[in-house]
Amino acid sequence: MRHHRYFVYILTNQNHMVLYVGVTNDLGRRVTEHRSGVHQGFTKRYNVTKLIYFEEYTDINAAIAREKQFKSGSRQKKLDAVASLNPNWDELLP
């Protein structure tokens, strides 16, 4: 049986003013897409390319629920999550 992996992630721009939350089954591919600007939209418009946070799940429904929790929560809750894992806001996927 194949082990599925899903990721909830937070990206920011270079000056850390914008936060973007997403979910994917291939974190490396998805971050590369954000960085190359292949999709029109928010991340391309605001140059949101720096991976600063992620969580891994084996259940897609749990990952989607977590993404929705982040998106409906305050900016402070996102900042708190990042601070708990990556207080220096280092790039997690060079």
TrEMBL record:
InterPro entries: GIY-YIG_endonuc (IPR000305), GIY-YIG_endonuc_sf (IPR035901), UPF0213_domain (IPR050190). SUPFAM superfamilies: GIY-YIG endonuclease. Residues 4-80 form the GIY-YIG domain. Belongs to the UPF0213 family. This is GIY-YIG nuclease family protein. It comes from Hymenobacter oligotrophus.
